[in-house]
Amino acid sequence: MIIKNNKKEEGDDTKNLAMMPDDVEAVRKAPSLDGKRPLQISTSSFLFTAMVGVPVWLTVVLPLTLVYQSGKALSSLGGNSSNRKNSGTTTSSMGNGGEDGDDVVASSTMESTAGADPTALNLIPLKERRYDVVLLGATGFTGSLAAKYLYQNYHHKNLKWAVAGRSKDKLETLLKRLLEPQDDLDNRSNHSSNTDTQQNYVDLLIVDTLKPNTIHDLVKDARCVITTAGPFCKYGSNVVEYCARYGTNYVDITGEIGWNKEMIVKWDALARHTGAKIVSLCGCDSIPWDMTYFKLAQMLQRDCHDTISKLTCYDNMKGGISGGTVDTMLTFLEGKYQTPRFPFDPYYRKSDGSKSQNKSKDMSSLFIGRKMELNGTKSKWTNPFVMSSINSEVIKRSHALSENSTTGDGQPLIYRESCVQQSFKEAFVTWFGTVLGVTALLNPITGGPIKKYFIPKPGEGPTEREMSEGYLLVNGVGEGVKGSIVESEFYFPVDAGYKDTARMVSEAGLCLALDSEKLPVQGGGFFSPSVAMGDVLLERLCKTGCKFASRVVHIQGQKLKSKL
């Protein structure tokens, strides 16, 4: 439900979102009502971090990393860069997606076999395809969560779907685990008697994404491919190419911005020709923030006759981390993936190939600060969010494709994001812990033991209890060129990085597969989640667990002035 000055707005073009709470305050209180407990740092932990951790970082960890990285750079300049290339294959940039616990083997992306490419004459129309969705990477950590979500929520609704991966044994084990009776003993025998029929209905597709001849069966008969198999610059490039060739819709959970830009340059024209909608970053990177931008820009334009010029997001969250996420972040930090050089940033590229005039600029702070309230006062402490650089890029893409949201004065959209903490203790320990951890991992003396003993391995991740205790609440504040102000709250009730990422990417795939006639864009190409799916996706998310509300705080001409 959209709120304007705390009153319900009738006749709204988002009436399909009527299941949402009545106001912003109700959503803001949702974590507390759900019994969520925010991060709390004890005074002793804070003092230990400040009095022991900081000196150790300054005198040991930082010097070791500076010496090691300097030597590495000099070695590269001296002509030894080939050793580095041989020691690790190209991997992804930062992102929560891209872990696939299916024992992936490092290898470079293979070229497609042109002789097997489809023609327009032998493409199966989307409505006639056998599968609504095919889930690739179903045996990885996030992939298995997505498989469980699809089975529990849509299998009984006659969803036509399949799971895909390299290992038949692992896929069969996954399906047997999904089909294990979850109900009481009275229903158990009846449930198991139908196991064979149900298991046969969920087909298994054996696919090695490094072997293009195995990808045809993955994409040719599917309306949409949902993939969690990464790192995507190693294991996703051929999948994107063949989806573009076959006119098959595609969603993933990557946070690999550089790779996504590379795919846009290579395959956007082909996807537009075949009608394939290619939508990356459909997990915690970066649906919550992309949809926040979309709704606030929409409200400013519709209700305030204004255009968005500033967006500030304050994140209240709790969650774990998987080994795949750490591995993906490490390969980015170590510079193993180099983004190609482009004539101009592909995220500014419009469907006709020209450069959008809608620019944006990330001005998120790298240091601890204070949250700025709407009345201009400072309240809770904040710290930088490690994924804000990813979210800002996705919003850049959405803003560039939304020509109706141009500021009109040539000024960029200003984006800021930070995490809100209960006190200075939590803000400092979270911020310094990130700095210490990243620095320590970038040299082998301190990084080796940490990788071996303290961080989860690929395929490992938070426990079911930890994910259930997690949550994400995004407070968005948008300001228009004329000075109007709008606000929103977006709530995800479990760990957004994994369990709710599985839900987000699943619903995004179903949105493209089943709701095509409702979507805001009907043609093919590369899109951000909000541009491709808009309110249709938001409705799906709110029907399956999210809560969202927004309101107009101030319309130009009133006394309240922005302090953002």
Briefly, what is this?
About 40% of the residues lie in helices and about 15% in strands.
Low-confidence runs of at least 5 consecutive residues: 1-21, 80-115, 183-200, 559-564
Q: What fraction of residues sit in β-strands?
A: 15-25%
* Mean pLDDT reading: 84
| Secondary-structure-derived class | alpha/beta
Number of helices: 19
Oligomer: single chain
The profile of the biggest β sheet is: 8 strands, mixed
How far apart are the first and last residues' alpha carbons, in Å? Answer: 26 Å
Helix content: 40-55%
Approximate shape: globular
* Rg over C-alpha atoms, rounded to the nearest angstrom: 24 Å
Q: Give the beta-strand count.
A: 17
Secondary-structure map:
Elements: E1 3-4, E2 7-8, H1 24-28, H2 30-33, H3 43-87, E3 131-136, H4 141-154, E4 161-165, H5 168-178, H6 185-193, H7 195-201, E5 203-206, H8 216-219, E6 222-227, H9 232-235, H10 237-246, E7 249-252, H11 257-274, E8 277-279, H12 287-303, E9 308-318, H13 323-333, E10 360-362, E11 369-372, E12 378-383, H14 388-401, E13 413-420, H15 424-441, H16 444-453, H17 464-469, E14 471-480, E15 485-492, H18 499-514, E16 525-527, H19 529-543, E17 547-554
Parallel strand pairs: 3-4, 3-6, 4-5, 6-7, 7-8, 8-16, 9-13, 10-13
Antiparallel strand pairs: 1-2, 9-14, 11-12, 12-13, 14-15, 15-17
How would you characterize this protein structure?
Helix 4 packs across helix 18. The radius of gyration is 24 Å and the shape is globular. A hairpin with a 5-residue loop joins strand 11 and strand 12. It is α/β, with parallel strands linked by helices. The N terminus and C terminus are likely disordered. Strands 9, 10, 11, 12, 13, 14, 15 and 17 form an eight-stranded mixed sheet that branches.
